Structure formats: structure tokens, C-alpha cells
DNA sequence: CAGTAAACGAGACGGTACGTCCCGTCTTATG
DNA sequence: CATAAGACGGGACGTACCGTCTCGTTTACTG
């Protein structure tokens, strides 16, 4: 029967090749720099095939984007501060060195007008923030933070300055900045 | 003499019509959604003329963007907190209601690869933040903030959460959030 | 196999439509009056497609021109004079009534500067003169003309006055003129 | 009064500069290769001024063309044959070496559709042929040619082969060809 | 010698064409 | 039935030219 049709490995191979090339262009030039023709040329997969697997350029971009920035594991040192510091330092490092952050603005831009992309980005960001939320939640349960602490507010307090510095101020953050930010965020959730 | 004479108003009229239409498209679809042909069609200005005034589509976009978000006047109530609250509330309001914030991500995206656009954006953002910087500097001089306060850090502490909520979390901020953020930022600069 | 398969008739249809419209414009306004955009508009074939089949406007013109003035069959009445008269009369008729002769000057003009067009025109004219050459050659073999007759000289003697009258003198030739010209040409090749 | 207004030499100077540059472009690229903008650039005369003196590009071209190929003086050796030979040899020489013959096809092409250009060309050609007509007429008066000789037919018989060889056959004519052609033309007008 | 009118340069303007690149649809032949 | 190959219509890009226009300056003749 071969109902699922996965027996023929071609589909997987095509999709993989297309996504790989799409990802490559994505990191080079952002969402707007991805050309279906170019993807077809460089991946060796025919344009027809691409449009068979993804209904539109947009869908392909969504698919490729949603695989970006694989999930960090949440550290568990027993201290919110240490955990958050580890996570924040890693994110700060990536924000200025990895390829994928340069794609974020174009995704956010597209999300501004395309609900599907907005959904994808929400999920993507949700995934990326998961370790932060987990670490904060654990800290609250351990009593390090006030029981009425709103997890997202703490996460926001940690992440927002990093993103801001990456894209609005152009200055790269150093360890001191990350430390101060994390301390600041925690203190807010500890104060009476 | 009067060689440079602008007495022929055609240039002004053309430029104005083009910039207006460009701005319109900009707020509708971001940087990537602006088409020179479309601008020509809707503005009644010939494509040739557009290219006579701006050497490239990019230059036109830069010009149009740099006129966005006119400068807020800096309030001076005698209290940093009140001043910052007023400014932050206004910005928060605009972030979710005005047309131009939806263009920001596309600008930031373009800036990621185009140095000219990066420069324009730096200047634009500089301009938009000026009142904040002024208000904070005044507070520091009045002794409301520690003398070693770094102005930009305070501004970052106020703005970052607003931007983060606008584009990463999709939740609109309320007055309570703005208050908390401003208080938080000020407290950091007051603590011993 | 059949790799090259022309089974998809679209190419043929596109090419035909484009060439037809090009020919139409050609006869109306000469080489210089053919506009690719106009051809695209009137033929219903997209400009992109036109440039897919011809690398440049020039190539399209060359292609369209080289199909002009289909080959006359060479008559064979057994007499050079009768044969030549028939051919020359037909040419004279066409020179003043058909559409394509009006294109010749623009081709000759272009050939003055563009070697590709010069080649095309040489071949085109070669084709148009073929029946004349054949008829003269046969007459020489039959002994009607001296054995050392240079075929091209006879053809020139017949054609040159017709062309001259068409474009330099504006007077249309009549049968008497054609007769005199042909007789004259033949006599030159018969005299001792 | 100063009605004629020619006292101001600027008009003459402008016209001369424009015509010179036009002529230069004309011989380089034919009628179609003349660009008013380019003429303005290279002549130092403003486009406005050009259009002040000539109502259209076409008019400028007509003006420039009509000054081409200054009038040959008609030789008078006392023999039609010698006179014609001199003239024909000179023309043959020019056809392959001078600059202006390369413009003729584009003029003829334009004449095909533009009556004004047709008139200009008729007059131009008339002027160029004048010496030939004069020489033949004198020969007829002297009795060298039959009294019922049609002048234009003799001129045609001499010129047509030269033009034909220049533009249809690409082979340059030699002295022998010119001699044969002239002899041939004269003989036709002598025969009973 | 001041005033006027023509000629001029500089260049803005709307419009059409050029040839290229991309998008998303389509048609066909091959595995 | 997935695929490669590629034709197709459509839209945008940035450049060149055409002929019209507006403006301020120079030049020469006038009163």
C-alpha cells in the first residue's frame, strides 16, 4: 500500500535540500532575500517541487524559520540567579555572533502584516523563551521569588534590554550589563 | 545672483507628493512593500522624476523614513518621574496606535545589511530618544538621580520593555506596566 | 526519450504571435519603429517570454526580417529573356505594392553598423536573388549567353535600375522600362 | 528697428554648433543614432535652444542632412564619355570612403514614412545628380547622343549599378566596372 | 546711459522603451 | 505519483531619450 508515501525517500530529500538552502539564504539576507528561483537553482530541486510541498513562498519561509534557534536546555543549579545568568549570557553571546538573530527583524516585520507568520513567530519565540520561564517558575516554587511573581514579567525584564541593545542601541552588551540586568530583574520579584 | 533659487516650486511639489505616497505605502507594507512604480502611479510624479531626486529606491526609503516620528518636545515638570511617565506613556500609546511603529522592524531588518540604512536608523532613533535623554540628564543635575547615572542606561530601562512587549510579546502594555517600568528604572539610578 | 520534444505547443504559439506582430510593426515603421513593449502588448505575449526566445531586440528583428520576402520559384521557359522578364516584372510589381520593400532601407541602414544584421541581409538578399541567378546560369549553359558571362553582373544589370527607381527616383517603373532593362542586360552578355 | 536681428551672432553660433555636432553623430550612427540630448551635451547648446531653432528632432535632422554632400562641379571636357567617367569615378570613390553615404540608407528609410524627409531627400539627390544631368544634356546637344535621349535614363544607367553594389552586393567596384557601366549607358543612348 | 527684448543655460517634468530579475502557475516527460 | 525542466504572464527595477515647461542670466539694440 505504502499509504503514507514516505517509503519513497525523495520527498524527504527534496524538503531537506530546500530547507537547507532556504536557511542559508535566510541567514545571509533575511526573509526578503530569499528567492524561490534561487533556492531551486542552488538546491537542485525544481521550483515545481517546491511549490508542491509549500503552497507559497511565505509558507516555505515560515517552515524554514520555525526550525531556527533550536531549544536551549534549561539549567538547574538550584539558584534562579545562576540559572538566569547562564541562560542570559548564552543568549547575549548568540545575539551578537550567531547567524539567526539577524533574521529576526525581518520575521517580526513580516509578522506585522501576515498573521500566519505572526503565529509562527509567537510559537518560535515561545520555544526560545521556554527555558527562561522554566527557570523562573522553579525559583518561584523554591521560594526565591515572591509567590505572586508573574513569570513573563521577569523574563521580559531579563530579555528586553538585551534585544534593545542588539537592535536599537548598537552597543554590544558585556558581562557586567548582563549581570546587572539579571540582578535587577530578580530584585523586582523579591521586593516586598 | 541667487543662483540656487528654489523659485520654481515644482521640485518641492514633486518631492512632497512622492514622500507622502512613499510614507503611505511604508505604513501599509513596510520598507519591502514600497514600489517605485507604484509610488509614481499614485503620486502623479513620473518615475523618471523620482530617480532624478533620489538616486535609488533605497535612498528614497531612507529619506522617507528619516522624516517619520516627529520629535516629541521634552516636558519639564521638575520631576524626573513625572517627565518620564509622560514621555513613556505617549510612546506606549503610539507604539500600539500610530502607523509608523509598524515600519520599524523592516527598517531594523534593512539596517542589518545596509550601512546607509543603519546610519539613518541610528539618527532617527537618536532623535526619538532625545527627549528621554534630556529629561534624565535634567533629573541627574537636579540631584534626583545619582551623579554617576549613565543616561542611556536609564533610557534603555524605560524603553526596552515597551519595545519588547510591542514586538516579542504581543500583549499591549497598560498604564500600570508603564508606571512599574518607569519606577523601576528610576529606582536603579537612585539606589546607593 | 524524445528529450527535445516540442510537444508543448506554447513555444511555437508564442514565437508565431511575436513574429507576426513584429512583422506588422516592421512594415508599418521599419526596424526602428519596432518596440518590444508594443510587440508584447499587441501579441499577448509577455515581454519576459519574448526575451526568453530572443536575446535582444536586435535578434528579434533579425529573425523577423529573415522570414520576409519568401523565395520566388525560378521559371524555366527555355528562354533567358522570358524567364528574366517574368522575374523582373514580379519584383517590380512587389517593389511598389508589397509591404516588405519599405523595410529594406532600415535593414540596410542597420547593416551599415551591425555586422549581424549585415549577415542576415546578405543571406536574405542572396535568397531573393537566387531565382535570377539560376535563370541566368541556365541561359549561359544553353548558349544563349556568352560562356564567360558573369552571372552576378547580369543580375545586377537587371535589378539595379529597379531598386534605383524605387528609392532614388520616386517614379514607378512600367513594363516598357522593365523590358528595356532586361533586353539591355541580356545584350551585354551576348555581344562579342 | 534691427528687424533682421542677425546682428546678434549668438543664433548663428548656436545653429552652427548644433548642426556640426548633429552631422558628427549622423555620420557615426545614421539618422537613428542622433540624440537631441547628446547633441545638446556635446555642442554646449542647451536643449531648449535647439528646440527653439528646430521644431522637432526630425526638422533638425532634415536641416543637417540637406547640407550633406556638397555639389560637385560638372566637368566639361567636350566628351560625354570622359565627363561621365570622371563623375562616376568620383562618386564610386566616395561611396566607399566618405562618411556621408553611410547615412543615406537611414534617410531613405525615414523618407519611406515621412513626406518632409522624402522631399528633403529628393532635393538632396537632385542636387547630387545635377552634374550628371548637365553633362548628359550637353552631350545630347553636341550630337554625341541621340536627340531623343532621356537624360534621366542615362543617369540611372550610370548610377544604379554603383548604388546597388554599395548596398546590395557588398563588393566594391573597381575602375573596370565603372568604365563598363559608363560605356554601357552611353551605348544605349547612341544605338539606333 | 538706463531700459527692454530676444537668445540663452540649466534643468525639472511626464512619458515610453529598454533588458533583467523575481513570483506563482502551467505543461510535459522521466523515474 | 514525485520529480526535473522549463514556458508563461505579470510586475518591478534603474536608465536613456523625447519634447515641454519654467526660470534667471547674458547680450545687444533702443530711447
Automatic annotation (TrEMBL), chains A, B, C, D:
Gene3D superfamilies cross-referenced by the UniProt entry: Homeodomain-like, Tetracycline Repressor, domain 2
GO molecular function terms listed in the Swiss-Prot or TrEMBL record: DNA-binding transcription factor activity; transcription cis-regulatory region binding
Record has Zinc-finger as a keyword: no
Highest taxon of the lineage: Bacteria
InterPro entries, per the entry: Homeodomain-like_sf, HTH-type_TetR-like_transc_reg, HTH_TetR, Tet_transcr_reg_TetR-rel_C_sf, TetR_C
DNA-binding annotation, residue ranges on this chain: 35-54
Keyword line: DNA-binding, Transcription, Transcription regulation
Domain HTH tetR-type residues, every copy: 12-72
Pfam families documented for this protein: TetR_C_11 (PF16859), TetR_N (PF00440)
The protein's name: Putative transcriptional regulator, TetR family protein
